[in-house]
Design goal:
nine-stranded antiparallel beta sheet; alpha+beta; flat
Length: 1192
C-alpha cells in the first residue's frame, strides 16, 4: 500500500518542480524588461514581492508533503501500540479489583481498632470519677501546718513531672494515630512508604517498652507518696494544738487593737475637719478658675476681632494698590494714544509733502507740453519721437492724477480718524483726572486708618502681657492639682494589681477547659481524615475510566486531521491555478498604466500654468484679508478696554462705600473695648490676692496630709501612760503571722487540687497500660507486615505500568498537538495567499483609481464638475468645518463654494496610503465674490482664502466606488468636525487687513503648504533689476558668525530712486518705459531689487542696459521659500522680529534654512497706502532635504 501512495506523489512533485522552473525563467525575463523603466519601479518591487511569496508557498508545500508522509507512517505504528496498550489495560483492571478487596480487609481492621479506642475512653472516664471521689475525701481532711511547706513543694514538683509525662504520652498517642493514617496511605502509594511504616512500627515497640518501665516507676512513686501523706497528717494534728495556743494570744491582742481603733477614730474626726476646710478652699479655687476662663474667653474674642480687622485693613490696602495700578495703566494707554496721534500726524505731513511734489511734477509736465507744441511747427522731422513722448507723458499724467485722487481720499480718511482719536483722548483725560482725585482721597483715608491701627496694636500688646501673667498663675494651680492626682493614681495601681491576680487565676481555669475541648476536636478531625481517604480511592478509580475514554477520543481526532490534510492539498492546487490567471491580468494592467502615465504628464503641464495664475490672485486676496482682520481686531480691543474701565470704576465706588460702613463699625467696637479695659487693674489685684491665699492654704493642706501619711507613732505612744512597747510588737507579729497563715492555707488548697488531678492521671495511665497488647498482637502485626510487603510489590508493578501508559498517552497528546499546529500553519498560509490575491486585486484597481482622481479633481469647480457615479450614494464626507453623509450633500457644498467664492483647486501629488485608500495633497484658493457688485466695499474688501492639506479617498473593494472622503488642513491641529480652530483660521483670512495693488505683475510661484503662521512657495525664475543700498546698513547682524548681514528694512532711498529711474526710462539706455511691478525686494546682502515683468522682457538679453554702473540686471533662479506675511509700517525692528518668529516656526516643524543664505524682505504697496493696509513679507530660502522629510 505504501508503494502505491508514494508513486503518484513523486510524479506530482516532478511536475510541480518543472512548472516552478518555467515560472522562475518567466520572472527573470520580466525583471530584465522592467529594470530600465523608472516609471514602473513600484510595479517591479511589488512583482518581486509576489514572486518571493510564491517561492515561499512552493517550499512550504514541499515541506508539508514530506510531513504528511511521515505522519502517515507514525499513525500506522501508533495504531499497533494502542492495541497492545488496550490489552494491558484489561489485565490491569483485574489486578485493580484484587487490590480493592485487600484494601477493604484493611479498613475492617481499622474499624476494630476504633472500637478498642472507644472502650479505652470509657475506662478513662471511670478512673476520672474515682479520682474525683478521692479529692473530696482529701478536702474533708484537716489543713496543712506551716512546717510542711517543703514536703508540699516536693509533691508539687512531682505533680509537674507527672503532667509533663502525661502530655508526652498524649502526644505519642496522637503520633501513633497519625502513623496509622500514614500506613493506610502507603498501602496505595508503594514500597518506599511501606519501609517508613516498618521503621515507625519499630519505634512504637521501643516506646511501648519505655512506657512499661515508666508505669513501674509510677507505682513506686505512688507508694512513697502514700507514706508521706500519713506523716503529713500526724504533723498537721500537732500543728492544730499550736494553733489553739495562738488563738488565746490573739484574744489578748484584740483588746489592744480596740484601743488603737479608738485612737484612729479621734484622728478621723480631726481629718474630717481638715477635709471640710480643704473643700471650702477648693470651691474658692474653682470659682477663681471659672472667672479666669471667662476673662481668657473674652480676651480670645478680642484677639479674633483684632485679627479680622487687620485682615480687612490688608484687603483695603490691596484694593487701593489695584486702583493705583489701574490709574497707571490708564496713563500708559493715554501715552500710547498720544504716540499714535503723533505718528498719524507725521504720516499726514509725509502724504501732504508727496502730494505737493506730485503737483509740482504735474505743473512742470504741462509747461514742457506747451514748449513742445511750439517746437513741433519748427521741427517736423522729430514729429514721431515727440508723439511717442506725448503719449508717455499723458499716461504718466493719468497715473499721477489717479495717485493724487487716492492721496486726497487718504487725507480725508486720516482727518476723520484724527477727529475720532482726539475725542477718545479727551475722554481718557477726563477719566484720568477723576482717577487721580480718587487716589488722593484714598491715600488720606489710608493714613487715618494706619494711625488707628497702631493705637489698637499697642492696646492689644498690653492685654497680651496681662493674659500671660494670668496664664502663669493658672499653670501653678494646675501643677498642684496634678500632684494630688498622682497620689490618687498610686492607690488605683494597688487596686489594679489585686484585681489582675484574680483575673490570672480565672484565666488558668478557662485554659484548662479549652484544652479538654481541643482534645475532643482532634478526635473528630481523625475520623474526618479517614473518610477523606476512602473518597480519594473512589476518585482514582473514576480517573482511570476517564483516561480510557480520552484515549478513544484521541483516535477520533487523528482521523479528522487526516481529512483536513487532504482538503488542504486540494486548496493548494486551486491556489496554483489562480496565480496563473493573475499573471496574465498583471500584464494587461502594465499596458494600461503606461498609457495613463503619458496622459498624466500632459495634463500636469496644463495644470501648472493654471495653478500659477491662481496663486497670484490668491496671495493678493490673502494679504488684504489679513490687513482688514487686524483693523477689526484693534477696534474691538479699544471698545473692550473702554467698557472694562467703566465697569471697574463703578466697582471701586461700591467698594469705597462698603469700606466706610466697616470703618464706622470698627470705631464703635474700639470704643466699647476701651470702656471694658478700664476695670482690668482692679481684677488683677483681686487675682493676685486670691493666689496668695490659695498658696497659704495649700501649704497647710500639704503639711496635714504629710502628717496623716507618716504619723509619728513614737510621740503618740509617749503621750499614753502605762504603754507597753512589747505588746505593740507582738500585735504586729500576730498580724504578719495571720497574713502568712491565710496565704499558706490558700496554697494548700491549690496543691490539694493539683494532687487530685495527678492521681486521676495516674489512674488513667494505669488503665492504659493494663490494656496494652501482648504477644498475640505482635504475631498479628508480623502477618500484616508480610501482607503489606506483598501488596506494595503489586502496587509498585501497577504504578510502573500506569507510568508507562501515561507516557504513551502524553506521546499521543504531543503528536496530536503537533498535527494541530501544522494544520494551523497550513490554514494560515492558505489565508495569506488569499489575502495576497485580494491585495493584488486592490493594487490593480489603484493605478486606475489614481488616474481617475487626477482627471476628476481637475473639474472640481468648473462647469463639468466631478463624476458623481464614481461615489457611493452614502458618502462620509468630512472636513474641519463641514460634514455630509451623502453625495447630494457633497455636491451642494461644491455648488455653495462656487456661488460665494471663486475657488481654484490644484492637485500636487497622490499616493496609496492604505490597501483600499488613496491620499492626495492639494492647494485650494477661494476669492470672496459676494461683495463684487457693491460700489465701495467691492473694491476695498476682496479677501482671498487659501487652504492646503491632504484628502483621503477610501474605495469600496467590491464596487470600486468612493465611500469616504476626509480632508485634513495644514493650518490647524484640531481636525475634528466643527473645529473652533478651523473657523478661527477661516475668518482670520476673510478679515485680513492688508491689500495687494491691482493690475501689477508679480513673480509666479506655486503654493505648496500654508500653516497657521507661514507659507511654503516654489518660485519660478524671474527677471530683476538690482542696486546696492548705498546709504549704509542701519542694523547689522551675523547669521553664521562669519559675514555681517544688513537688515533689509534699512534705509535704501538712493537705490530705490535709481531703480525707479530705470523702470520709468530715464535710467536705461533705450529710454524704454516699463510697466510697474510688485513687490520691491531687499535682502541681507544689501541689495534692492525691482521685478521686471514678462510684458517688459522675458530674458536678460531683452532687458535694456542701465545707465548707472550701480544698477545691474539678472535672472533670479527662484526656488523653495518659507514666507511670513505681516502688515503695517516695515521698520528694522518689526522686520527682524518677524524673521525671528519665522525661524522659530520652521525649527518647530523640523525644517531648516539653506546653509549660508540670508533672508529677503518684500514690500508690495507704495508709500501712499495706509500702514494698516500695507502688505509686507519675510522670505527665507529652504533646504530641500528638510522640506521633503515633512512633505509626504
Amino acid at each position: 500500500m505504501a508503494t502505491d501512495d508514494t508513486g503518484p506523489s513523486k510524479a506530482g512533485d516532478f511536475g510541480n518542480t518543472g512548472a516552478f522552473e518555467v515560472l522562475e525563467r518567466e520572472f527573470q525575463e520580466v525583471l530584465q524588461e522592467l529594470v530600465g523603466d523608472t516609471s514602473l519601479e513600484r510595479f517591479r518591487i511589488e512583482y518581486e514581492k509576489l514572486h518571493r511569496a510564491l517561492k515561499k508557498s512552493h517550499d512550504g508545500e514541499k515541506r508539508l508533503v514530506k510531513k504528511c508522509r511521515e505522519l502517515n507512517a507514525e499513525i500506522v505504528a501508533n495504531a499497533a501500540k494502542v492495541q497492545t496498550a488496550l490489552k494491558l489495560n484489561e489485565e490491569d483492571q483485574s489486578t485493580i479489583g484484587a487490590l480493592k478487596k485487600e484494601i477493604e480487609k484493611a479498613w475492617k481492621m481499622v474499624d476494630a481498632s476504633h472500637e478498642k479506642e472507644a472502650k479505652a475512653k470509657e475506662t478513662i472516664q471511670q478512673l476520672k470519677m474515682e479520682i474525683a471521689n478521692l479529692t473530696r475525701l482529701v478536702e474533708q481532711g484537716s489543713g496543712l501546718a506551716m512546717g510542711e511547706e517543703s514536703t508540699l513543694n516536693d509533691l508539687l514538683r512531682q505533680k509537674e513531672d507527672l503532667i509533663k509525662e502525661r502530655d508526652q504520652q498524649v502526644d505519642q498517642i496522637m503520633a501513633l494515630r497519625a502513623e496509622l493514617m500514614e500506613s493506610q496511605e502507603k498501602l496505595r502509594v508503594g514500597e518506599n512508604e511501606k519501609l517508613t511504616i516498618e521503621s515507625e512500627t519499630q519505634v512504637l515497640r521501643d516506646s511501648i517498652a519505655e512506657r512499661k518501665m515508666e508505669a513501674e516507676r509510677e507505682s513506686r512513686k505512688k507508694d512513697k507518696m502514700e507514706k508521706e501523706m500519713k506523716e503529713l497528717r500526724v504533723t498537721l494534728e500537732a500543728r492544730a494544738g499550736d494553733v489553739k495556743m495562738r488563738q488565746a494570744q490573739v484574744a489578748a491582742t484584740e483588746e489592744t487593737v480596740a484601743r488603737l481603733e479608738q485612737m484612729v477614730r479621734d484622728s478621723k474626726i480631726t481629718t474630717d475637719r481638715v477635709q471640710k476646710d480643704y473643700n471650702q478652699l477648693n470651691e474658692k479655687v474653682q470659682k477663681l478658675h471659672h472667672d479666669l476662663e471667662e476673662q481668657i474667653h473674652a480676651n480670645t474674642q478680642l484677639l479674633a476681632e483684632n485679627s479680622q480687622k487687620q485682615v480687612e485693613l490688608k484687603v483695603k490696602e490691596d484694593e487701593i494698590a489695584q486702583v493705583k495700578a489701574e490709574a497707571m495703566r490708564v496713563n500708559k494707554l493715554r501715552d500710547q494714544t498720544a504716540k499714535k496721534i503723533k505718528q498719524l500726524e507725521d504720516q499726514r505731513t509725509e502724504v501732504e509733502n508727496e502730494r505737493d511734489a506730485a503737483k509740482l511734477e504735474i505743473s512742470n509736465l504741462e509747461h514742457d507740453l506747451e514748449l513742445k507744441a511750439k517746437d513741433m511747427d519748427f521741427e517736423k522731422k522729430k514729429f514721431d519721437e515727440l508723439v511717442r513722448e506725448r503719449d508717455i507723458l499723458s499716461k504718466l499724467r493719468s497715473q499721477a492724477e489717479g495717485a493724487t485722487q487716492k492721496q486726497v481720499d487718504l487725507i480725508k480718511i486720516n482727518d476723520n480718524t484724527k477727529r475720532n482719536l482726539e475725542q477718545e483722548i479727551q475722554g481718557y483725560r477726563m477719566e484720568a483726572q477723576k482717577q487721580s482725585k480718587l487716589v488722593w482721597q484714598l491715600e488720606k483715608e489710608r493714613e487715618k486708618y494706619a494711625v488707628e491701627a497702631s493705637d489698637a496694636a499697642s492696646k492689644y500688646m498690653r492685654a497680651l502681657e496681662e493674659v500671660k501673667l494670668r496664664e502663669m498663675a493658672i499653670i501653678d494651680l494646675q501643677k498642684r492639682i496634678s500632684e494630688g492626682e498622682g497620689r490618687l493614681k498610686q492607690q488605683q495601681n494597688l487596686y489594679e494589681a489585686v484585681r489582675a491576680d484574680r483575673n490570672l487565676y480565672s484565666k488558668n481555669l478557662i485554659e484548662a477547659q479549652d484544652e479538654i475541648q481541643e482534645m475532643k476536636r482532634k478526635f473528630k478531625i481523625m475520623q474526618h481524615q479517614i473518610e477523606q481517604l476512602k473518597e480519594e480511592i473512589s476518585a482514582k478509580d473514576l480517573a482511570l475510566v476517564k483516561e480510557h475514554f480520552e484515549h478513544m477520543s484521541v483516535e477520533k481526532e487523528k482521523e479528522s486531521l487526516r481529512m483536513e490534510l487532504n482538503k488542504a492539498k486540494q486548496q493548494i492546487k486551486e491556489a496554483d491555478t489562480a496565480i496563473g490567471s493573475q499573471r496574465s491580468e498583471i500584464e494587461k494592467l502594465n499596458h494600461i498604466i503606461n498609457e495613463a502615465d503619458q496622459e498624466r504628464m500632459r495634463q500636469k503641464k496644463e495644470y501648472d500654468v493654471v495653478v500659477n495664475e491662481r496663486d497670484i490672485l490668491g496671495t493678493q486676496l490673502i494679504r488684504r484679508n489679513d490687513e482688514l482682520a487686524l483693523l477689526y481686531e484693534k477696534i474691538k480691543i479699544q471698545q473692550s478696554t473702554l467698557s472694562k474701565g467703566q465697569i471697574q470704576y463703578r466697582d471701586r465706588l461700591n467698594e469705597i462705600r462698603v469700606l466706610k460702613i466697616k470703618l464706622n463699625d470698627l470705631k464703635r467696637e474700639l470704643h466699647i473695648l476701651k470702656s471694658s479695659v478700664a476695670n482690668i487693674d482692679v481684677l488683677k489685684r483681686e487675682v493676685h490676692q486670691l493666689g496668695r491665699e490659695l498658696l497659704q492654704e495649700r501649704t497647710k493642706v500639704k503639711a496635714l496630709s504629710e502628717e496623716l501619711e507618716n504619723p509619728l507613732n513614737v510621740h503618740r505612744w509617749r503621750k499614753l501612760e502605762g504603754s507597753d512597747p512589747s505588746t505593740y510588737e507582738m500585735i504586729q507579729k500576730i498580724q504578719t503571722l495571720q497574713k502568712r497563715l491565710i496565704a499558706k492555707t490558700e496554697e494548700v488548697v491549690e496543691k490539694d487540687l493539683l494532687i487530685q488531678e495527678k492521681e486521676k492521671l495516674y489512674m488513667e495511665l494505669k488503665n492504659i497500660l493494663a490494656r496494652q497488647p501482648g504477644p498475640e498482637v505482635a504475631e498479628q502485626l508480623s502477618i500484616y507486615q508480610a501482607n503489606l510487603r506483598e501488596k506494595t510489590k503489586q502496587m509498585k508493578a501497577m504504578a510502573s505500568e500506569l507510568n508507562m501508559y501515561q507516557a504513551q498517552v502524553n506521546e499521543y497528546k504531543y503528536e496530536i498537538e503537533r498535527l494541530v499546529r501544522e494544520l494551523g500553519d497550513m490554514k494560515r498560509k492558505y489565508f495569506d495567499t488569499k489575502r495576497r490575491e485580494q491585495l493584488d486585486k486592490e493594487r490593480m484597481i489603484k493605478p486606475a483609481k489614481m488616474a481617475f482622481l487626477h482627471e476628476d479633481l481637475q473639474h472640481l469647480f468648473d462647469d463639468q464638475g466631478i463624476d458623481a457615479s464614481s461615489y457611493e450614494d452614502v458618502v462620509d464626507f468630512r472636513d474641519p468645518i463641514t460634514k455630509y453623509s451623502s453625495i447630494g450633500g457633497y455636491l451642494f457644498n461644491i455648488a455653495f463654494l462656487k456661488k460665494a467664492f471663486n475657488p481654484k483647486f490644484e492637485l500636487h501629488e497622490s499616493w496609496v496610503s492604505e490597501p483600499t485608500a488613496v491620499t492626495t495633497r492639494w492647494t485650494m484658493t477661494m476669492e470672496f465674490t459676494l461683495t463684487k457688485g457693491l460700489p465701495l466695499i467691492g473694491k476695498a474688501f476682496r479677501p482671498t482664502i487659501v487652504f492646503t492639506g491632504t484628502s483621503k479617498y477610501v474605495f469600496n473593494p467590491d464596487s470600486g466606488k468612493i465611500y469616504r472622503h476626509i480632508d485634513i488642513w495644514d493650518s490647524i491641529e484640531n481636525q475634528e468636525y466643527f473645529s473652533v480652530e478651523a473657523f478661527g483660521d477661516f475668518f482670520r483670512q476673510l478679515l485680513q487687513p492688508y491689500t495687494t495693488p491691482e493690475g501689477l505683475e508679480t513673480p509666479a510661484y506655486t503654493l505648496l503648504k500654508r500653516t497657521s503662521d507661514y507659507q511654503i512657495r516654489r518660485y519660478a525664475p524671474f527677471l530683476v533689476v538690482e542696486c546696492e543700498m548705498g546709504d549704509g546698513p542701519s542694523l547689522a547682524s551675523s547669521t553664521n558668525g562669519s559675514t555681517p548681514q544688513v537688515n533689509p528694512a534699512g534705509s535704501g532711498t538712493s537705490a530705490f530712486r535709481q531703480l525707479a529711474a530705470y523702470i520709468f526710462g530715464s535710467g536705461n539706455e533705450e529710454k524704454r518705459v516699463m510697466a510697474m511691478t510688485t513687490p520691491v525686494y531687499s535682502d541681507t546682502s544689501g541689495r534692492m531689487q525691482f521685478v521686471v515683468g514678462p510684458s517688459a522682457a522675458t530674458t536678460t538679453a531683452g532687458m535694456p542696459r542701465p545707465v548707472s554702473p550701480l544698477v545691474a540686471t539678472r535672472e533670479s533662479p527662484g526656488g523653495l521659500f518659507a514666507v511670513r506675511a505681516f502688515n503695517g509700517l516695515c521698520d528694522e525692528v518689526s522686520a527682524e522680529r518677524e524673521h525671528a518668529t519665522l525661524a522659530a516656526s520652521l525649527a518647530r516643524d523640523g525644517m531648516a534654512a539653506q546653509a549660508g543664505s540670508g533672508w529677503t524682505l518684500a514690500r508690495y504697496n507704495g508709500p501712499g497706502t495706509p500702514a494698516v493696509l500695507r502688505r509686507n513679507e519675510v522670505l527665507v530660502p529652504l533646504d530641500e532635504a528638510s522640506f521633503l522629510q515633512s512633505w509626504p
